[in-house]
Write a structure and sequence with these properties.
alpha/beta; two-stranded antiparallel sheet; 7 helices; 11 strands; globular
Length: 187
């Protein structure tokens, strides 16, 4: 079974974290939410308290991750960016050629680490300046190599389905889109 770790920091954008988590779990992926604030409790940008599965300090080294995911939101993305452990995990994940996802403001973390140089990427408008060396696409979702980026809250579903596609394949994604009535939005 594919395994994903989602890093949650105070100020994360609710839908950018929870929609992809929901999609991947429905699609048969093991998703572990990791609170990086020294506790399991994390408070979203809109004041929703979420209980992460594990605090960062007890999560291990993430070597078993197929994907590391960063939700956006402010100050959530800044909190992720300021966390040395998260940055180290992302660098190790990238060095291993394994998948990384970041949405909205969170691609700034990847840009600051140099992980977007020479790649195509998207982010929330106004954060392009933090995509160091990337070609900004302004797409809802952009995939380049092992890195997937999403634009913002409205991209949470396409981004989540894309991550699931990478981990479980197109057939699972299409079944889930139909079951969740996502295709109805596009009709």
């Amino acid at each position: 079974m594919a395994k994903v770790y989602v890093f949650l920091a105070d100020g994360f954008e609710d839908i950018e974290a929870l929609a992809p988590i929901d999609i991947m779990r429905r699609g048969g992926v093991e998703v572990v939410t990791v609170g990086i604030m020294g506790t399991n409790e994390v408070i979203s940008a809109h004041g929703v308290t979420v209980l992460a599965d594990v605090p960062f300090e007890l999560a291990g080294d993430f070597a078993d991750a197929d994907l590391l995911m960063l939700p956006g939101g402010m100050p959530g993305a800044s909190n992720l960016n300021d966390h040395a452990g998260v940055r180290g995990a992302l660098l190790r994940q990238n060095a291993a050629g394994k998948r990384i996802g970041a949405i909205c403001a969170a691609p700034m973390v990847l840009g600051g680490l140099g992980l977007l140089r020479g790649k195509r990427a998207t982010c929330y408008p106004g954060f392009e300046q933090y995509l160091d060396g990337a070609e900004y696409t302004a797409e809802l979702c952009t995939v380049d190599g092992n890195i997937t980026t999403g634009e913002g809250p409205a991209a949470a579903f396409p981004y989540g389905y894309e991550l699931l596609r990478q981990l479980q394949g197109e057939d699972i994604v299409e079944q889930l889109k139909e079951g969740m009535r996502y295709n109805h939005l596009l009709a």
